[in-house]
Structures are given as C-alpha cells and as structure tokens.
Amino acid sequence: MKKPTTYSVLFTFLLLINFSLKAQNLNTDVKAKIVLEDVEGNIKITGTAENLTDILQSLTYKLSVIKKNLKSENRSSNAQEGVFTLDANQNKNLSTTQINKSSEDEIIVLLLFYDENNQIVSQDRVVISDQKKKDKVIILDDGIELAGIVADETKTKIGKDFYDNFYYLYRDYNLNAKQIVKVNEELSFGRNTKIVIMIENEVVFEFLARPDEEFLESMAKKALYETYQFLKKIENEKKYITQY
C-alpha cells in the first residue's frame, strides 16, 4: 500500500481545519431559534431570529415542519420561506405555523438561515415525540452542539417525498452526524429533476427523480448507504490525522 506523502497529509489536515471552522461559524452572528407553544392541544411553532452583532443583517430563512405517524407511517411536510433583515441586536419573529399532534406522531421542526451565497449560517432543530426511543426527543438550546441536520432543498412533491424517506431512514439508523447533509433538487433534461445529496459541498449521491413511490424508497436506501460511507470516510480521515 502506498504511503501518503507529507504534502497529502498536510492538505487533508488543512481541509479538516477549514470544515471545522465553518461549523464553528454557525449561529455566531445571527441566532436561529424555534419557539413552541401549546394552544388548545395544538402546537404553535414560531421561527425567530436574533442579531448578535452591531451591524444590519440580511438573510433568507426556511422553516420546515415534517410530521410522521409512527403507527401508520403516514407523513406530511410543509415549509415556509422568506427574506428578512435585522437591525443591530434586534430579535424578530419570522414565521408562525400551527399543527395538531397525537401521541403517535413524531414532529421534526427545522429552521435554517442562508446568506447571499446560499450557505447555511444559522440553524435550530426540534424533534417532538412521546415515544421513548433513543434520540427521538431533542430540543436544542445554547451550549448544546447541533447534529443530525438534513437540509431540505427540494422544490417539487417528488423531491419532498424523497426527502421524507431519506430523512426518516437517516434518523432510524441514528447517523446523527455533525456535518450538515443537504438534499438538493436541480432541473435536468426536459421536465425531469435531479436529486443530489451533498455533504460539505461534495456530491455524495445523485439520481434522476421519477414519480414512483417504490423507486424513491429504493433511492433513499441507496442514498443512505452512500451517505454512511462518506461520513465514515470523514471519520477515518480525522482519526488518521490525530495519529500523526
């Protein structure tokens, strides 16, 4: 087996430092926060933003709510998007939605902020469930490291159906990686769209989508496998750097 050169080891080390710095920069200038309220048995969800700096901030947001009945496996999702500005040190409510919940439901709420280059700069996630399973009830707050983020960048119903399949597989297998996994949807030939899984700006898996439930479920399993392999590669690279 060919031994890595000093240059290749140094290059990999610098890449890992760069990725680490990007992760640390999240939530430093603008804080994303999901606020939950009980309103007559329903859950009121409000996405809020707080400017932690002394300068004007202009960003876009996406508030996603995914609901799954753990008994019937039925799923539904919706998302609200928009552009917002914050004056220095301002705190603002961005979007509000309301959803009903039974004891058999699991609800995932994800709030993401993007800059002008469509890069995620802040995030918050809440998972609501009455089921006593590992990693099923998570409320993130100050001082707790965010993990397990799967960003929904799909545009069509087909894309959202795939995202739901992939996300629940991702959670069921407890991958819960620190890296943000993006599910993008791009226009392709004709009326087709292409689903692209990305981690740290690298394409992990991609395919042409089609409106077939079994096909999307199959692609979700393949995408999960490739995602797992990519995350293991990152983990092994970090271990290798630590050894040297």
TrEMBL record:
<dbReference type="InterPro" id="IPR018900">
    <property type="entry name" value="Curli_CsgE"/>
</dbReference>
<feature type="signal peptide">
    <location>
        <begin position="1"/>
        <end position="23"/>
    </location>
</feature>
<dbReference type="Pfam" id="PF10627">
    <property type="entry name" value="CsgE"/>
</dbReference>
<dbReference type="InterPro" id="IPR053722">
    <property type="entry name" value="Curli_assembly_CsgC/AgfC"/>
</dbReference>
<protein>
    <recommendedName>
        <fullName>Curli production assembly/transport component CsgE</fullName>
    </recommendedName>
</protein>
<comment type="function">
    <text>May be involved in the biogenesis of curli organelles.</text>
</comment>
<keyword id="KW-0732">Signal</keyword>
